[in-house]
């Protein structure tokens, strides 16, 4: 089984309403970490474009995350244990370009647009440029070099470069993407590329040959590099000693450097012409088929969105519908993995890969199935993603991250052909967006359910209390008057059972108010109400009877209830404070008094006993609730 981690930088940004500046493409940089759950034997990582986004992480540090298994790094040199590198011969490439410009075109003033400083390819290409200029005794001044970022958004750097060097004869770009920007700048200035100024690139990407004029560049053999990577990884898995090595490159001469591209001669014979006509007809037919396929698929996206939107009330139905759509697309097989809870990842925060990934649904062998939450198999060290997707056939999976904005939901693994990747990338974006809507729908359903339950409780209390104002405005709990009525009601019931009055105080309310303001104090009081309320049954009574004072009335025959209840509240405070982003801790001191309710019970005496116990508990509270700095 082979897994390919999918990522596209800036793909379909215009269609999706994103921009280069504020898109959420940084989410793709996390997908490699999910491979640690894969149960893989080995890993091949194309670090080139990924490394440009890892602003605060070196290649060595990144490599150490994956060196628990044999790993091959493409386009980057690493020295971590269990890793080795395959990188193109950058030195040879720049040498070929420079010698061509100097020897064939007699260029003396050659400018250079460098790539990002943290990138090995970029550094080697810049260094070789300087060496070649020195070899031919050509002067280089700092203003002859511009600092780029490997993107085609370097217009300003190129504008300044040309302003500072109006007599430049050629510009050598460290990659093709930045050369595209150079074309645009030259066109604005009325400079004809290949005549007024010569331009070369590096990489020979798909657009290079179709530019006007076609771009002279250094051609990397991606197929060869991929084949070498697989062979090296297999050798490493066999225990062989594999050394890092470089992949040879070649100069692809086109018209941007001033050369005239040599076109193949066309034999003017009837047979040749007939073959050309047949070839043209086949090309037109293929284009028509591709157009029909594109039209069908373009209709699929809104259809998918609509069908998933119809399942927002039922997650299980949602998952089945998603897999049914994968069946309709005729994928060989598809697996959908979901996190237990979506995680929020902000671009400038430290990324921690989640560990709670589960198989939620799949389509394979014409079978579609989905799992309810508690039936989903977790991804573990012993049973990784690959093991959960294994069967008797060989697969090549494209892995897509499912996210919407800053939230990640899981992974989609599809066995598809490489040329289908862009279309399924858009499919994954739609599923991620639909999962976001599903999350909102589930939250809204819970909110309505809670509102219904709370409303019913309020109605019942209002009916019993005769709609008398007995509630605390801040927390919505009973006030002292309402609590007193409940005590009287319990004692008059003449049910001889064990009961408790519990006094609770929010620790250091004054410190919170004085340090962070009364809104913070109100938040803390409301939080106490939720924490205590979450530990009680619907028949128990909770009230706020003063500034930071809460009281609880309940009956319970549970042994060791007092110790158990204290621990429940303490644990709940710990969970709350762990999840809270406030600079202070919310903690509660408790005093508990036990009694047997009777009509003649002196409830004030019971309250006094609970208050005395509370006083003892307060002796052991923190001196301050300021959150310790980590």
From TrEMBL:
Naturally occurring in which organism (per UniProt): Blautia obeum
Keywords noted in UniProt: DNA-binding, Transcription, Transcription regulation
GGDEF domain boundaries: 497-630
PROSITE patterns: GGDEF
Keyword Transcription regulation tagged: yes
Family annotation (Pfam families): GGDEF (PF00990), Peripla_BP_3 (PF13377)
InterPro entries, alphabetized: GGDEF_dom, LacI/GalR-like_sensor, Nucleotide_cyclase, Peripla_BP_I, Rev_trsase/Diguanyl_cyclase
Name this polypeptide is given: Lactose operon repressor
Gene expressing this chain: lacI_1
One MF annotation (Gene Ontology) recorded for this entry: DNA-binding transcription factor activity
Domain of life: Bacteria
């Amino acid at each position: 089984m082979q897994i390919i981690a999918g990522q596209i930088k800036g793909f379909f940004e215009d269609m999706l309403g994103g921009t280069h500046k504020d898109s959420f493409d940084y989410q793709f940089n996390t997908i490699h970490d999910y491979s640690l759950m894969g149960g893989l034997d080995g890993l091949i990582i194309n670090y080139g474009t990924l490394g440009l986004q890892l602003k605060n992480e070196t290649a060595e540090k990144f490599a150490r995350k994956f060196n628990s298994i044999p790993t091959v790094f493409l386009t980057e040199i690493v020295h971590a244990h269990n890793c080795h590198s395959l990188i193109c011969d950058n030195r040879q490439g720049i040498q070929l370009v420079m010698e061509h410009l100097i020897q064939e075109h007699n260029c003396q003033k050659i400018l250079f647009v460098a790539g990002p400083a943290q990138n090995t390819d970029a550094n080697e290409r810049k260094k070789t440029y300087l060496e070649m200029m020195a070899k031919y005794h050509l002067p280089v001044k700092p203003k002859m070099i511009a600092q780029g970022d490997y993107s085609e958004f370097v217009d300003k750097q190129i504008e300044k470069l040309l302003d500072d060097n109006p007599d430049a004869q050629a510009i050598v770009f460290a990659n093709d993407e930045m050369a595209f920007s150079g074309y645009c700048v030259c066109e604005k200035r009325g400079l004809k590329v290949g005549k007024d100024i010569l331009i070369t690139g590096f990489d020979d990407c798909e657009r290079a040959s179709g530019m006007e004029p076609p771009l002279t560049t250094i051609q990397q053999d991606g197929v060869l590099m991929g084949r070498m990577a697989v062979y090296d990884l297999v050798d490493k898995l066999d225990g062989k000693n594999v050394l890092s090595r470089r992949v040879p490159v070649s100069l692809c001469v086109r018209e941007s450097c001033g050369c005239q591209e040599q076109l193949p001669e066309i034999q003017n014979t009837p047979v040749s012409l007939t073959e050309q006509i047949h070839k043209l007809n086949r090309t037109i037919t293929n284009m028509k088929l591709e157009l029909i396929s594109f039209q069908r698929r373009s209709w699929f996206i809104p259809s998918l969105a609509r069908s998933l939107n119809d399942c927002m009330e039922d997650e299980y139905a949602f998952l089945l519908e998603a897999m049914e759509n994968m069946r309709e697309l005729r994928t060989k097989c598809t697996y959908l993995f979901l996190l237990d809870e979506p995680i929020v990842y902000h671009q400038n925060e430290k990324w921690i890969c989640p560990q709670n990934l589960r198989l939620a649904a799949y389509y394979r062998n014409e079978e579609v199935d989905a799992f309810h939450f508690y039936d989903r198999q977790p991804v573990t060290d012993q049973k990784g993603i690959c093991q959960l997707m294994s069967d008797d056939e060989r697969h090549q999976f494209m892995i897509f991250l499912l996210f919407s904005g800053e939230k990640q939901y899981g992974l989609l693994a599809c066995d598809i052909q490489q040329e289908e990747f862009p279309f399924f990338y858009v499919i994954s974006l739609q599923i991620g967006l639909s999962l976001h809507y599903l999350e909102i729908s589930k939250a809204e359903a819970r909110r309505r359910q809670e509102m219904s339950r709370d409303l019913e409780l309020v109605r019942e209390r209002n009916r019993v209390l005769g709609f008398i104002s007995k509630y605390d405005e801040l927390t919505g709990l009973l006030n002292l008057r309402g609590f007193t009525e409940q005590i009287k009601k319990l004692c008059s019931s003449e049910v001889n059972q064990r009961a408790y009055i519990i006094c609770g105080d929010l620790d250091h309310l004054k410190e919170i108010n004085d340090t962070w303001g009364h809104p913070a104090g109100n938040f803390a009081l409301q939080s106490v109400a939720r924490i205590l309320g979450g530990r009680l049954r619907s028949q128990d009574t909770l009230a706020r009877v003063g500034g930071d004072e809460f009281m609880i009335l309940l009956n319970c025959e549970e042994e060791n209830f007092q110790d158990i209840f204290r621990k429940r509240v303490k644990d709940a405070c710990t969970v709350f404070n762990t999840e809270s982003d406030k600079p202070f801790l919310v903690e509660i001191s408790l005093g508990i008094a036990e009694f047997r309710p009777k009509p003649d019970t002196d409830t004030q005496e019971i309250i006094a006993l609970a208050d005395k116990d509370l006083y003892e508990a307060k002796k052991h509270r923190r001196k301050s609730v300021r959150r310790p700095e980590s």
